[in-house]
Design a protein that fits this description.
15 helices, alpha/beta, 10 strands, about 325 residues
Length: about 325
């Protein structure tokens, strides 16, 4: 009985109560692979509160976190087909349909916060064409969620240079990161975010790639002891809505949802450096060693990863060339 009461309380807290949904004109279900306590989860809570407040309860937002409904790789098709109204997916999950999205995983291309902000600004020469291309999958982008730079996780010492990657099995979460791993001497294994803890715990892989905020939200210090701060890629998540569903909403509903989305996007972007700093502090407090490669070591990474750019240019077509040129001008 207590378990039922707890579950019911949790459902109501997330806006999952049936009475609220029945009273609403519109219900937005959102799938998220991360825990609600993660910064992406809290960003969805901000969006939910804003939408429900400004709509006076006419719109209810239901958040299904921790991959309850769909894993990261399943979100694009689930939203595009209309199986669910909205979802959060890492941008690279669209690489099969739109190879150009992996512009953000070109090694060390976006190596400053200023470059990242310029690239991800709504309507920018980098983001704008990508948002348009995603419409062809049946989804419309509502906002982008910052996840920070990619780091490497390991046990027993840092991954200072490509020499330390030789013969290592590496968890990656996208094809281009797999290319980067192969170019630098490792063997990539594609593992979803929700499954990486077990992969490290079981020794399925030797090295992991993730954002440092994920180390905190998933308590990865329990299974890995070292972070190497390479920041070799910029990790972006996007919140998408099924296009047919979106177009069928009343204009005033779309307007207030868009306003809430823009508020959520600005909030998570502005907090990203603070979020990463807190995650590094938590990792150190829980016994992890933090290593930052020096300029000479970064130069070795860059030299070894040039084949990744060649592969991107071959596969990403005209759109890839367009966004790469725009990114290099930032």
């Amino acid at each position: 009985m207590k378990a039922f009461q707890w579950a019911l309380g949790a459902a109501v807290a997330l806006g999952l109560g049936t009475s609220a949904s029945l009273a609403a004109d519109t219900t937005l279900r959102i799938s998220l692979q991360l825990p609600l306590t993660s910064h992406l989860g809290q960003n969805l809570v901000l969006f939910k509160e804003e939408v429900e407040k400004t709509s006076n309860g006419a719109i209810v937002v239901e958040i299904y976190d921790s991959a309850q409904l769909y894993k990261d790789k399943q979100v694009p098709s689930a939203v595009g087909s209309g199986s669910i109204e909205m979802g959060v997916a890492s941008l690279t999950q669209y690489v099969g349909d739109i190879p150009a999205v992996d512009i953000f995983y070109q090694p060390f291309l976006f190596d400053t916060e200023e470059k990242v902000r310029a690239a991800v600004a709504k309507g920018s020469p980098v983001r704008g064409p990508i948002d348009e291309a995603i419409k062809d999958t049946g989804s419309t982008v509502l906002w982008w969620q910052a996840y920070g730079g990619a780091v490497m996780l390991s046990n027993g010492g840092p991954i200072k240079t490509p020499a330390d990657m030789q013969g290592k099995k590496v968890r990656v979460f996208g094809k281009t990161l797999g290319d980067f791993t192969q170019a630098t001497g490792g063997a990539p294994t594609l593992i979803s975010g929700s499954e990486q803890y077990l992969a490290y715990q079981r020794g399925t892989v030797d090295v992991g790639m993730t954002g440092v905020s994920g180390v905190k939200s998933r308590k990865l210090w329990e299974v890995m002891d070292t972070i190497t701060v390479t920041n070799h890629a910029d990790i972006e998540f996007i919140v998408v809505v099924n296009t047919d569903f979106w177009n069928g909403l009343p204009e005033d509903h779309r307007a207030l949802i868009e306003a809430a989305a823009m508020k959520a996007e600005a909030d998570v972007r502005n907090k990203m450096s603070e979020i990463e700093a807190a995650a590094y502090d938590a990792a150190k407090e829980n016994g992890m060693t933090i290593y930052t490669p020096n300029a000479e070591e970064i130069a070795q990474w860059k030299a070894a990863s040039q084949p990744v750019y060649d592969t991107f240019s071959e596969k990403a077509g005209a759109l890839g060339a367009q966004v790469l040129e725009a990114a290099r001008k930032l």
